[in-house]
Amino acid sequence: MLNGLSFGALLFLVSSGFTLVFGLMRIVNLAHGAFYLLGGYVGVVTMRATGNLLLAIVVGAVAVAVLGLGVERILLRRIRGQELPEVLLTVGVSFVVADMSLAIFGGDPHILPLPGAIAGSVQLGGSSYPVYRLLIIVVTLIVGIGLYLMQRFTRTGAIVRAGVDDREMVAAMGINIQRVFTGMFVFGTGLAALAGVIGSGLVSLRPGVENEILLYALVVVIIGGLGSIKGAAVGAVLIGLIDAFSKAWIPDLSYFTIFAPMALVLVLRPTGLFGRTA
């Protein structure tokens, strides 16, 4: 169960940025997994050079957020509102980032070197459990609570929620919606990079991991509902637990047990558990 919760926590960090970008900008950002991969690589390199985990997280998140700013301002803004070109463009960005990462960092797996304080284990119920997995759960809870408070009790959150409901009305009220779009896209890419740095201590970085993590994130947001932070949290916990138990009990059907709930939700409630019906 703890393995499922820690993996679900990682999935929430990835899918929350993904669902926020879609909810406001209506962009299915298929480069999200590549941003996760690049953030992880930058964080691992920084950690090896400095030995400071917090610095590695900050550098990884900021570096990828700057890249996300360039992608939004230079590329996506030119095709705003054109759904197919937006999807194809993010796919192209994903390929470019993944290939550049392969050229720079190589094809060997990379894993985040952990500081001694969090590299050990603690005793839980008569068995030992890695401290780092517990740390991932704690960090995700802090981020999740921060996202909730920002969304519900700040002016920025109110603008974002209003933009999700009616972007045209927000623009008509004199709010620079383009700036809001840019800020949310940069924030989403930063969350993906944050997940990449933290997740590289749990799942090794290697070519192709960007597609795997993106696939999991898509399942999470489809189950939870596109644009819903609450849905991302519930979907991440469900998929994390299902993944952990299915790999332990029925490993031959582990992928089936992940995609079967998604198919069921699409049939019974196409908008997701917490998605808007209108």
Can you describe what's shown?
- The model has no long low-confidence stretch (mean pLDDT 88).
- 75% of the residues lie in helices and 3% in strands.
- A two-stranded antiparallel ribbon has the order 1-2.
- The protein starts with a helix and ends in a 10-residue tail after the last helix.
- It is globular.
- It has 278 residues and is mainly alpha-helical.
- The protein is built from 12 helices and 2 strands, in the order αααααββααααααα.
Briefly say what this structure is.
By secondary structure, this protein is mainly alpha-helical. It contains 12 helices and 2 strands.
Structure keywords:
mainly alpha, 278 residues, 75% helix
Question: How do the strands and helices of this protein lay out in sequence?
Answer:
Layout lengths: L1 H24 L6 H19 L2 H23 L7 H23 L10 H4 L1 E4 L2 E4 H23 L1 H11 L1 H6 L4 H23 L9 H16 L4 H21 L4 H15 L10
Antiparallel strand pairs: 1-2
Helix pairs in contact: 1-6, 1-9, 1-10, 1-11, 2-3, 2-4, 2-9, 2-10, 3-9, 6-7, 10-11, 10-12, 11-12
